[in-house]
Each structure stands twice: as structure tokens, then as C-alpha cells.
């Protein structure tokens, strides 16, 4: 054991001359030795080992919780969407732009959230070009019953992120927003301190007032090597035990999908989080998750490999473990897709219907939980122009909203209902003439 | 909030670098006063903006989670420079670098070699992380290696959530320790090979 008798005089003397006394105490405890140093004496080893084991037992005992098990009962339908209105049987289609022309030279990566209040909140990033220092994450709101979107407001930019995270930020990028079960709105967004997108990290902001104002950013540490290279694009799934499964992806060295499980605290905010990586699915990124029945979840993934096919995988335990990767039968030009489970159980997909280029945007429907797909209306098509990064959401009227990058200049918003979806022809002309 | 272990690491690392550079010049006597002056200069180097950012913040941008082993090894090296005697034996320091090289290689490269395993995930399992840290610490201490005390420190730091990361791995290993460990390993191996096969003097 640690010899107390020689230590006591030094303890008494530590008030007068702390540093020499502490060094002497440490010396007697076997930690420090003036040269030549010897191996830790046996008595000290025993004392330190006992201290280590006791500390571990004490720490383990007060360990808060253990979420290393599969989540329970993923909600198959967004819990915040109320019943469908009576106008659901009349085909409805409308289109608009969220940001005004010339607002920013480049706009990309839009996300939409149907708020419990009935408002819609859109988020995207814009600036002089993708990855520029002047890029900011903007929000715009479509108030319940209002015909037009509010002017864009900066939610976070490079300087704000820099100040809030207390570190150098080179640029900001992809952001997603989603509500938790307490009605707070969460934003997970990308920042880069060094290099390109593969050098990015994820951060979390929370809003208590439906996205009017946002709290301070918090850095999420998700990857072992300098916490680099997790990005976000698509909407989360919700487990009945409170956990939120957010699909993210890794880009550095090997590209693969990941699921970030966030555990909200009782008073709002994130209490705990952990990442499950899926490196066995290399070359597949930007997973989109669709909760099915009976603890099943569908994942669809962008293909950055040579084959350029939209890939799928299934989970039978609420997104904790995943099947081998399969093919959807649809092409993918290395571009993001999004999917939404409709109220009748079908799955709606928005995607680029080509193996090369993002020159069209199309819908597809699956009636068998994502096993097979039937292509539907083509919403956009133009040579040498880009229509990409679709995002689907359902509002409190049961209407479906689709936002996407329109020619990299603006964010376009389409609104339609199931009646339009089912009765629609497969061409852009038919879609727009409704 | 000031990041505690990052602060210790960056101050010790820059101070150690300054002392090591000055000690290279044999004409400058290495005195406690000079070391104290270099300590003051360390704060100047860290806090004075270079471009838009002080070194303090620029380094934190990329490396906010120094492991306890890295902090301990850097502080021990600084202590040896400042006070003239070692906190750790050479074999203990070597064990630290080997630990960094081996564990870092496993953690950072395993997904590129065998993709189905996700070791980093288990660092979020608090019970597993706590008992792993304790087991490693006990193993080092049982061998009489003072690095075991650093693992006990990692355990306490982990329980107090002192790093930005909530993952237990980040308290044990970090990329700087890994790369330094690999660098020392390759340097020593190369040195050994040259020494082993050097032609005998005529």
C-alpha cells in the first residue's frame, strides 16, 4: 500500500510550499521517482490497481443508461400529421419557388418540415457557389393558409458557426430539420474546418419556437479520426423509446451509410447520441429511411460507384441492423433521392431517372414496401440543366410537398395530393397542366 | 467553457517545442528562468492571432479531443525538460508509443480492411468503455508501468465527460498519438535495420 508515514510531513508542509510537497508525496506514492527510475513498486501497483477497479465500479454504477440495443417500434407514419381533410379526393397540384430570383447565385440541398402548428419550414443552403465561404443555411416559412413563402432568413452561416462552436469554420453545407416529440425543432448541419466535404463534421442546433430562433450550435463527435467526414441529407425515423434515427453518411477514404441515433433529454436537447456505421455497404451514401410496419425499415441509397443504380436494404429491427444491399430496379446518377410513406401504405419516391446527369426529376411508387417500383410523373426535364436533391414531406392537410434544387439557382416547391398523384399522366406536360 | 485537457495538451506541447528548440542551441544556458520565459512565450504564441486565428483556436478546430495518454506523455516530456528528471521510464514511454501505434492502427484502419466490424460504436457503450479502460490500466499497472495511472485518469475523465467526445475510444487514443507512434516505430525500425546491416569498419 501507499506508505502514509513519510507522506504526512509533506501534507502538513503543502500549504507553505505546495509544489515541492506535492512532488514529494507523488514520489512516495510511487508515481514519481528521481533517476534512476524503477518499475512501479509492488505495493504501489496493488494500491493503484485497487483504486482503478474501485473507480471503475463506482463509475459504472452511476453510468446513466445504455442504449446499445435496438430501438423499439419505429413509427411508420409521421406522428405529427393529423387526419386528411375532406378535399383529399379532388386532384390538387401547385408549384412555386421558395427563394426569390437572384437571392443567391447558387442554392442547393433543400429540406422541408411540416410543423405541428401547420406551417411549413424549408431549409437550404445558398451562396456564390457550393462550398464558398459566403454560403449560409437559410430558412423560409409557408404559414398555414398563406399563399407565399416568407423571405429567406439566415439560420446559420460560417461566422455564426465559428463563434458558436469556438473554432475555425471554412464553410457550411447540408442541413436537415426535424421535430422531436416535445415539439422542439432540431437542425443538424454540416461544417468544414479543413479540406472539402469529406472533411466535414456535424453540428446540432435546437429551436424552441418552430424555427424562428435557434439555440447555440453543438458539435457532435461521431467519427474516430479527428471526427471527420459525416454528412447529412435525409429525414429521420422515430422510435417509441424516444430515440431518433437520423440517416447520415461517411465520405472520407471509404464512402458508406451511417445511422446516427439521437436520444433526446427530458428537458429538450440531446442527452446522448451514438453512430452505427454500415461500412459493409461501400460506395453508397445519402441513405433515405422509410419506416414500414412490423419493425421493418426500408433504406434507399445513392450509388457513387460505376453501376449507378439506386440501392435498397431492409431492417427487421427498426433500423438497428440491415440486410445485404439489393437493387431497386431504378437508375441513380450519383444523386440524392427521397422517399415518403403515404397514408395508404404505398411509398412515394422522388429521383433522377437516369444513370448519368441530373437533367430530369421523376416520381415513382411502390406498393410492396419498396421491393418493386412503378415510375410515375416526370416533373422536370431539360438538357444540360440540373434538377436534383428532392425532399418529400406531408403537411397537416395530408398534402404532399416536394422541394428540390432547380437549376442550382433556386429551390422549387411542388404541392399535390394523392388524387393528383394517382390520376396523373407520366409526362411533365400533364403534371404542369393540372 | 475552456476545454480542460485540450488546454493542458496545447500549452504543454508548445512549451515543450519551445524548450526543445532553445535547448538545441548549446550556447544558451538552460536555466529555470529561461524555461519560465518560454512558458510565458507559449501563451503569447497561442493567443496572438496569426491571420484571422490564434494557434489556440486553429488547433482546436481540428484536434479538440486529445487522449489522456497523449496529454500524459506530452506533460511527462515537458516535465523532464523543465525539472531534469523523468516521470516515466524510457520503457514506459515506449509502451505508450507502441500502444498508440497498435491501437490506433486497429481503430482507424479496421473498417478499410474488414468492413463489417464497427469498433468505434462500442466506445459509446459506457459499461464496455469503463471496464475496457480499467482493464487496460490494470494490465499496465500489474506490469509495473506508470502509464496505468494515465488510464485511471482516462477513466475518471470519461466519467466526468471532460472531452467534447462522448466516445470512450477518444479518451484512450487519438490520431496524433497514433501517427506519432507509427512515426517512432518506423524511425526506430529503420535505424535498427541500418545499424544491423551496416558494413563493419575495416
Structure characterization notes:
The complex is a heterodimer of chains A (434) and B (202). Chain A folds into two domains: 8-61, no CATH class; 86-433, Neuraminidase (6 Propeller). Chain A is 13% helix and 38% strand. Chain A has helices at 8-13, 18-28, 42-61, 158-165, 418-423, 428-433, and strands at 93-97, 106-114, 120-127, 136-142, 153-157, 171-179, 185-192, 200-207, 218-220, 230-232, 237-238, 244-250, 256-264, 270-277, 284-291, 297-303, 309-315, 326-331, 338-341, 347-351, 360-366, 374-381, 387-394, 400-406, 410-416. In chain A, strands 10, 11, 12, 13 and 14 form a five-stranded antiparallel beta sheet that branches. A four-stranded antiparallel beta sheet of chain A has the order 1-25-24-23. In chain A, strands 2-3-4-5 form a four-stranded antiparallel beta sheet. Chain A is elongated and about 90 Å long. Residues 425-434 of chain A have low confidence and may be disordered. Helix content of chain B is 72%, strand content 2%. In chain B, strand 1 and strand 2 (53-54) form a beta hairpin. In chain B, helix 5 packs across helix 10. Chain B is globular, with a radius of gyration of 19 Å. Classes of the chains: A mainly beta (434), B mainly alpha (202).
Oligomeric status of the shown chains?
heterodimer
Helix content of chain A: 10-25%
Strand order of the largest sheet of chain B: 1-2
List the chains of the largest interface with their residue counts: A-B, 53 and 57 residues
Instruction: Give the helix tally of chain B.
Output: 10
Structural class per helix/strand content of chain B?
mainly alpha
Beta-strand content estimate of chain B: under 5%
Overall geometry of chain A comes to elongated
Q: Spans of chain B with pLDDT under 50 lasting ≥5 residues?
A: none
Work out the count of structural domains of chain A.
2
Amino acid at each position: 500500500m501507499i506508505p502514509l508515514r513519510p507522506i504526512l510531513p509533506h501534507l502538513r508542509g503543502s500549504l507553505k510550499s505546495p509544489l515541492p510537497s506535492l512532488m514529494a508525496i507523488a514520489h512516495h506514492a510511487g508515481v514519481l521517482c528521481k533517476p534512476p527510475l524503477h518499475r512501479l513498486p509492488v505495493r504501489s501497483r496493488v494500491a493503484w490497481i485497487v483504486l482503478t477497479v474501485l473507480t471503475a465500479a463506482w463509475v459504472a454504477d452511476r453510468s446513466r443508461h445504455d442504449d446499445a440495443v435496438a430501438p423499439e417500434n419505429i413509427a411508420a407514419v409521421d406522428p405529427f400529421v393529423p387526419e386528411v381533410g375532406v378535399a383529399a379526393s379532388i386532384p390538387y397540384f401547385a408549384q412555386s419557388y421558395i427563394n426569390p430570383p437572384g437571392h443567391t447565385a447558387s442554392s442547393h440541398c433543400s429540406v422541408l418540415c411540416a410543423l405541428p402548428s401547420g406551417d411549413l419550414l424549408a431549409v437550404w443552403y445558398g451562396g456564390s457557389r457550393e462550398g464558398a465561404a459566403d454560403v449560409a443555411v437559410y430558412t423560409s416559412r409557408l404559414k398555414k393558409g398563406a399563399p407565399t413563402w416568407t423571405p429567406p432568413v439566415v439560420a446559420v452561416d460560417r461566422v455564426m458557426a465559428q463563434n458558436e462552436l469556438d473554432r475555425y469554420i471554412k464553410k457550411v453545407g447540408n442541413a436537415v430539420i426535424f421535430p422531436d416529440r416535445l415539439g422542439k425543432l432540431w437542425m443538424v448541419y454540416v461544417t468544414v474546418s479543413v479540406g472539402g466535404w469529406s472533411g466535414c463534421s456535424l453540428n446540432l442546433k435546437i429551436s424552441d419556437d418552430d424555427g424562428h430562433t435557434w439555440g447555440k450550435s453543438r458539435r457532435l463527435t461521431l467519427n474516430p479520426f479527428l471526427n471527420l467526414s459525416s454528412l447529412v441529407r435525409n429525414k429521420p425515423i422515430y422510435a417509441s423509446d424516444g430515440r431518433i434515427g437520423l440517416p447520415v453518411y461517411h465520405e472520407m477514404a471509404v464512402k458508406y451509410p451511417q445511422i446516427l441515433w439521437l436520444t433526446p433529454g427530458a428537458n429538450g436537447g440531446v442527452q446522448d447520441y451514438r453512430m452505427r456505421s454500415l461500412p459493409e455497404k461501400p460506395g453508397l451514401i445519402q441513405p433515405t429511411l422509410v419506416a414500414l410496419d412490423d419493425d421493418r425499415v426500408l433504406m434507399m441509397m445513392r450509388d457513387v460507384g460505376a453501376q449507378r443504380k439506386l440501392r435498397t436494404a431492409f431492417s427487421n429491427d427498426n433500423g438497428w441492423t440491415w440486410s445485404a444491399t439489393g437493387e431497386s430496379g431504378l437508375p441513380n446518377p450519383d444523386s440524392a433521392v427521397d422517399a415518403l410513406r403515404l397514408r395508404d401504405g404505398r411509398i412515394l419516391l422522388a429521383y433522377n431517372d437516369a444513370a448519368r446527369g441530373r437533367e430530369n426529376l421523376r416520381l415513382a411508387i411502390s406498393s410492396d414496401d419498396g421491393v418493386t417500383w412503378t415510375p410515375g410523373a416526370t416533373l422536370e426535364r431539360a438538357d444540360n440543366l440540373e434538377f436534383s436533391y428532392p425532399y418529400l414531406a406531408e403537411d397537416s392537410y395530408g398534402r404532399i410537398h416536394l422541394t428540390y434544387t432547380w437549376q442550382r439557382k433556386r429551390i422549387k416547391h411542388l404541392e399535390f395530393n394523392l388524387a393528383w398523384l394517382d390520376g396523373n399522366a407520366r409526362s411533365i406536360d400533364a403534371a404542369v397542366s393540372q | 467553457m475552456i476545454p480542460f485537457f485540450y488546454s493542458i495538451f496545447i500549452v504543454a506541447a508548445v512549451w515543450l517545442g519551445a524548450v526543445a528548440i532553445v535547448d538545441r542551441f548549446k550556447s544558451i544556458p538552460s536555466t529555470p528562468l529561461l524555461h519560465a520565459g518560454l512558458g510565458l512565450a507559449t501563451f503569447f504564441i497561442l493567443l496572438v492571432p496569426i491571420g484571422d486565428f490564434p494557434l489556440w483556436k486553429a488547433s482546436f478546430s481540428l484536434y479538440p479531443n486529445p487522449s489522456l495518454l497523449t496529454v500524459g506523455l506530452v506533460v511527462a516530456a515537458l516535465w523532464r525538460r523543465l525539472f531534469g528528471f523523468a516521470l516515466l521510464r524510457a520503457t514506459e514511454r515506449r509502451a505508450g508509443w507502441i500502444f498508440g501505434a497498435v491501437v490506433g492502427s486497429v481503430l482507424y484502419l479496421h473498417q478499410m480492411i474488414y468492413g463489417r466490424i464497427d469498433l468505434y460504436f462500442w466506445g459509446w457503450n459506457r459499461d464496455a468503455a469503463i471496464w475496457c479502460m480499467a482493464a487496460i490500466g490494470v494490465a499496465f499497472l500489474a506490469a509495473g508501468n506508470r502509464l496505468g495511472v494515465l488510464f485511471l485518469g482516462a477513466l475518471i475523465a470519461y466519467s466526468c465527460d471532460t472531452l467534447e467526445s462522448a466516445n470512450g475510444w477518444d479518451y484512450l487514443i487519438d490520431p496524433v498519438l497514433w501517427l506519432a507512434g507509427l512515426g517512432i516505430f518506423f524511425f526506430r525500425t529503420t535505424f535498427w535495420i541500418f545499424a544491423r546491416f551496416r558494413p563493419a569498419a575495416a
